[in-house]
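stuck on this fold:
=====
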Amino acid sequence: MYGKVLAKPGQRDAMVEILIESARLLTPLPACLMYIVNVEPAEPGAVWVTELWRSEADHDASLKMESVMAVIAKSKPLVAGFEGIRLIPVGGKGLPA
C-alpha cells in the first residue's frame, strides 16, 4: 500500500514526525512487514508512506488500535489531502516468501 499525505503549508516536518511515531507503534506487530516514511523533493508538502502487511484484515485491525487511532487524530489538523493506492504484491526483492 502507498499513501500520499499532503501536509498543510509548513507542516511537512511535523507530519513526518507523526508518521515516524506510527512506524514505532507498528514495529512490534508481526503482521506489519514494512512501514517506510518518504518525502517527495518535488512536492514540498508531500509525505509518502510505503506499507506492506500480511493481509488487508491485519491492516484494518491496526487502525482500530487505540495508540494508532490517537496518532491519526493527532495528524488530522496537519493534513491538507490524502490519496492511497492499494496493490497486491506478486514478487521481488524484500518481499517475504
Summary: Residues 31 and 57 are 10 Å apart (CA to CA).
